[in-house]
Amino acid sequence: MSSTGETNDVIDLSQSEPEYDPQPETPSGSKGNDLKPIDRLTEMPDDILSCILSFLTIRDSVKARILSRRWRYICPRMLNLDFDLHTVLGINYKARYSNGDLDLSWEDKSKFVTGVDQFLELYNGQKLDSLRICFCLGNEYAGYVDRWIRFAIIMKTEKLDLDFSASPESQSNNLYDFPCQLLPQGDSSQLKYLCLKSCNLGPTPNLVSRLISLKSLDLEHVPLNQSCADSILSSCLNLEWLRLKNSILPETLCIHGPSLHLKILIVHECYGVEKFEISSIGLTTFEYIGKVKNFSFLDVPRLEKVHIRFMVAYERGTQYMFNGIANDLPRLQTLSLVLTTDEVLPIPARITRFNSLKQLELFVMVSSDFNLLSLTSLLNASPLLQKLHLSLHTGRSRGRRIEQQYSKHVHFELKEVEVHGFLGRSNEMELAIYLLKNAVSLERMILSTQKRLYHGGGKWTSSRCPWFEWQRKKACAYDLLQKKKVNSHTELLFL
User: Fold this and answer.
1) Using CA atoms, how far apart are residues 304 and 264, in angstroms rounded to an integer?
2) Which residue, 214, 224, 272, 274, is CA-closest to 244?
3) Predicted pLDDT of residue 169
4) How confident is the model at residue 1 (pLDDT cuts 50, 70, 90)?
5) 48: which residues sit within 8 A by CB, 6+ positions away?
6) Which domain of life is it from (predicted)?
7) Residue-wise pLDDT tens digits, 256-315
8) Consecutive H or E run containing 115
């Protein structure tokens, strides 16, 4: 039994005896006590039974197949297979993690690999869209994992996700070596998306022909040196999306290649690297979360969207956010910044002009001493700005608020303002009034109590902020803001 009170046994099809084996219908002349139940379900064709099982979870479908000899070799036709603690062992990982029980025994791992093997041996589908394995396994289980990868290749799987971390604390020194040599060469490969967590990925012979089909590569806790990075990037000729997360990287990481078609690059809290050199003529989006580094954008003519969140930024990070980015990327059209009380704020009075910026997304840790009107410095430096999205979060105060006068500018292009985490506090009302007075072309202002946070890679979380005092003040705030509109056609929405 696990710590959550759930059994974590694997249903062993090779040993289980059928609990119920229906017999044919007894002739009508037999006595009543000799009658056998008529089981119409098992008389159905295999295709229909397989379809029925496909509506169950992997674990429940295995249980169903031990009901009778008729069901024993019926396999659900699932296009997406997901094997993890819950689907194979029946363990609620979140409950187990909250109890501090993170260790997986050798017996747990043995049952897991046996369970996956049993299911895949009976799988009789013609194709598989995705295969995901999420369990703490190291290179000592390479024989099993290699076999699962071969299965995915035979099934022409387009998405392969191997997550061997299982929990943040369970990092193994014996990382699984992903076998690139098992991937088919040339156009025969159907693999489009590859996600590896807590694995080693190294160059192998004929790597170019084996990774040519990849469009998306997601690497987390995958150590890379520059030679390995060069080999991978030069091999993935159709790669469009690349994420590097929590990985050890070389001191200078060069993302370039004459045949590189990369469109989206995400770097999230990686270690060892101090400088990024990026050259990709097709790159449109760059996201960075981590400590302040040196960035060199050599040839990125299409780069239009950047998200930056500096951890432990201080003055160096502040200067790059408000001056370096505009100099490095003059064609930038969408900028997303996370501004924190201790590390980035206050916003400097002088900001380099963003000549092409059309959309600005700001995630601000607001403290009682921070004046939201200081954000207008960014607006003043963005003459072509059309959309302003602002997400407010509570931050730690650094002391008394310093009153300061901010110059007023008319914003001719600003058409849309969206503020999340808005509770009608004086700081927030001042900014809303300023925008209503100075954005002469404003079409819509949305003020929402819902808090939103961007985690990178297109993933958002949101939460409602219940503040009962705001419900009482809401009508008064709405009337006040309506009176401050310089453009009578501006639509004001409270959500």
Assistant:
1) 11
2) 224
3) 42
4) very low
5) none
6) Eukaryota
7) 877 789 999 999 999 999 999 999 999 999 999 998 889 999 999 999 999 999 887 667
8) helix 106-122
Residue 308: predicted pLDDT: 93
Percent of the chain with pLDDT over 90: 44
Q: How far apart are CA 304 and CA 287, in angstroms?
A: 11
For residue 102, is pLDDT > 70? no
Contacts of residue 44, defined as CB under 8 A and 6 or more positions apart, other chains included, come to none
> When comparing pLDDT for 27 and 282, which is higher?
282
Count the Cβ atoms, other than its own, within 10 Å of residue 282.
Answer: 14
Report yes or no: 196 and 219 within 8 Å, Cβ to Cβ: yes
pLDDT of the residue at 332? 96
Q: Is the pLDDT assigned to residue 467 strictly greater than 50?
A: yes
Q: What is the CA radius of gyration of the chain?
A: 29
* Dihedral pair phi/psi, residue 48, rounded to 5°: -70, -40
Q: Which residues are CB-neighbours of 335 under 8 A, at least 6 positions away?
A: 305, 306, 308, 325, 354, 357, 359, 360, 361
Q: Would you call 258 exposed, middle or buried from its count of C-beta atoms within 10 A (0-12, 13-18, 19+)?
A: exposed
- What Å distances lie between residue 469 and 320, 447, 465, 473, 486, CA to CA? 39, 16, 12, 6, 28
The model's pLDDT over 198-256, given as tens digits with 9 standing for 90+, comes to 999 987 777 777 888 999 999 999 999 988 888 888 888 899 999 999 999 999 999 98
Which of 233, 292, 273, 220 lies closest to 456, judged by CA?
Answer: 220
Neighbours of 251 (CB within 10 A): 9
In this predicted model, what pLDDT tens digit does every residue of 359-397 receive, in sequence order?
999 999 877 778 889 899 999 999 999 999 999 988 766
CA pseudo-torsion sign 74, 78, 82, 87: negative
Give CA separation, 474 vs 51, 372, 436, in Å: 53, 20, 17
Helices (H), 387-441: 426-438
Task: Let me know the angle formed at the C-alpha of 439 by 392 and 404, rounded to the nearest 5 degrees.
Answer: 60
Q: In angstroms, rounded to a whole number, what is the distance separating the alpha carbons of residues 10 and 402?
A: 64
Report DSSP state, residue 165. Answer: -
- For residue 402, the model assigns a pLDDT of 60
Task: List beta partners, residue 305.
Answer: 285, 334
Across the chain, what does the average pLDDT equal?
82
User: Within 10 Å of residue 134's Cβ, how many Cβ atoms?
Assistant: 20
Q: Token pair for residue 57? A: 């979870």
Burial class from Cβ neighbours inside 10 Å (0-12, 13-18, 19+) for residue 351 reads middle
Q: Which residues contact 469 (CB under 8 A, 6 or more apart)?
A: none
Burial of 41 (0-12, 13-18, 19+ CB in 10 A): middle
| C-alpha–C-alpha distance, residues 255 and 489, integer Å | 47
How far is Cα 433 from Cα 401, in angstroms, rounded to an integer? 20
Place of tokens 């040339």: 186
